[in-house]
Amino acid sequence: MKTWTPAQITCRIFRRSLLPYGLPSLKLYQVQIPPKGTCVHWYFSADAQCTNNEEATVPLAFGKLPGVGPTDINGNATFSFPFDFPIGVSSGVINCTATDADGNTSEFSSCFSVSAATPTPTPTPTPTPTPTPAVQFSAATYSTAESIGSLPITVTRTGSASGAFTVDYATSDGAGLNQCSQVTGQASARCDYETTLGTLRFAAGDTSKQILVPIIDDSYAEGTENFTITLSNPTGITLGSPSTATISITDNETTTGANPIDQAGVFVRIHYIDFLSREPDPSGLAFWTNEITSCGSDQACIQLKRINVSAAYFLSIEFQQTGYLVERLYKAAYGDANGPSTFGGPHQISVPVVRLNEFLKDTQEIGQGVVVNVGNWQQQLENNKQAFALEFVQRSRFTSAYLTSMTPTDFVNQLFLNAGVTPSTTDRNAAIAEFGSATNTSDAAARGRALRDVAENATLNSQEFNRAFVLMQYIGYLRRNPNDPQDTDYTGYDFWLTKLNQFNGNFVSAEMVKAFINSVEYRQRFGP
């Protein structure tokens, strides 16, 4: 092996002509450089990466020197540097100058040709797929202390946030008919949390929303209890994961204590979440609590105040415009249901058609964000009513009962017939006029307005009042339908409606509210 000092060769390449070829590759050529009288063979190779008329400098060494390329035993060296030629270049000239370590130079040149080669295609990058928009809970599990009040559950959107969508949500549990005092590890919607149902509506740009689930702080020592919340029926989006979450309530009792429903503040809060489906506003909580505590230790006064405070929630503007409106909307849409009663002998009676979970879901929908006397509550309530009525008349149950081929007159007549109301000409014509000059009832918005006209009719409001008041004794206080266990039929409902009617709606004289808030079934929701 011969060893030589490093040398440097600088080459410039000049193109000669243009031809319509693809990306070129430069063939190898041999040139001879005679440093110090010795002939050394150089082999040049170039790939198509540098522009034409560009200079490239390559350091070389003869022999094995660190960091430089060696020659072989015969003094031959091969090196390469990149040159890029435009499409169509077919030939050119390489002009090179070799400089050794002593500064001696030698110039040489060589012609070259560019061979037309099929260009190596630039691979098309695999696009990163855009995530499919999805909606899901922010976590698969949530944990809360029993005394928290309401637990916020976050629902998030992933993927593009450009579109609007809706998704339903609902709580559920496996407690069934268990007594609230039973320790099973299963939370109960009657005893441990409030059933929470509804529809989330995401506008374009919305990425998250919260669901508030009221938690009940009972006095039973029961350990940690679990229930679930589930997303379903997405429109305009797909369900992501998790679409079901487990909620754990951590108990704050080590031994079962006194029943907290006897405390004025607890009693008032429970009425807010049972009747209005929301936590109390501070001023309302303070006002109604004071109504009871102002009695001091006078038990007769306390008892009467508790009755009046309790009834005030059914009579409130907020409930009359939300929960009671829901009962009347179902009445106008579907009429009555029938059920058996043994009060005064076996017979069938007409009863409200709306059921517990329908009532709770729809009441929560209309009441969303409404707190009477707070902010622009009237407009919020009206917006909610309009949106709900429009959604209600597009449900399959309603569209099956009322074909769009019906005339406006037939549509309105059927609603008033279901409501059990003979309308005035003015009221009837006003409802029909919601459709304008249309000859059918395909306009969903007009259907919603006409349904509201009937449901909010003053005669229906008066006729249905006592029936709804009795219904709410079961739904509000006992969190069940009138014919659910521990009842087996509508005998209890029939009894209390008859008694309330006998006293012309005077709930104090009828002792109806008193009976329900003092009942074992109600009180055992919260403690012994």
Question: Mind sketching the topology for me?
Answer:
Layout: E1 7-18, E2 24-33, E3 40-47, E4 55-60, E5 77-80, E6 89-99, E7 105-116, E8 134-137, E9 141-145, E10 150-158, E11 165-172, E12 197-202, E13 208-214, E14 225-235, E15 238-239, E16 244-250, H1 264-276, H2 282-293, H3 299-315, H4 317-320, H5 323-334, E17 336-341, E18 347-352, H6 356-366, H7 377-392, H8 396-401, H9 408-419, H10 425-432, H11 444-455, H12 458-478, H13 491-502, H14 507-510, H15 512-517, H16 520-523
Parallel strand pairs: 3-5, 8-15, 9-16
Antiparallel strand pairs: 1-4, 1-6, 2-3, 2-7, 6-7, 8-10, 10-13, 11-12, 11-14, 14-16, 17-18
Helix pairs in contact: 1-2, 1-3, 2-3, 5-6, 5-9, 5-11, 7-11, 9-11, 10-11, 12-13
Describe this structure in words.
This protein has 528 residues and is of the alpha+beta class. It has 3 domains: 7-116, no CATH class; 134-257, CalX-beta domain (Immunoglobulin-like), CATH 2.60.40; 318-507, no CATH class. It has 16 helices and 18 strands. It has helices at 264-276, 282-293, 299-315, 317-320, 323-334, 356-366, 377-392, 396-401, 408-419, 425-432, 444-455, 458-478, 491-502, 507-510, 512-517, 520-523; strands at 7-18, 24-33, 40-47, 55-60, 77-80, 89-99, 105-116, 134-137, 141-145, 150-158, 165-172, 197-202, 208-214, 225-235, 238-239, 244-250, 336-341, 347-352. The strands form 4 sheets. The chain has a 7-stranded mixed sheet with strand order 4-1-6-7-2-3-5, with no helix packed on it. Strands 9-16-14-11-12 form a 5-stranded mixed sheet. α1 (264-276) packs parallel to α3 and α5 crosses α11. It is globular, with a radius of gyration of 42 Å.
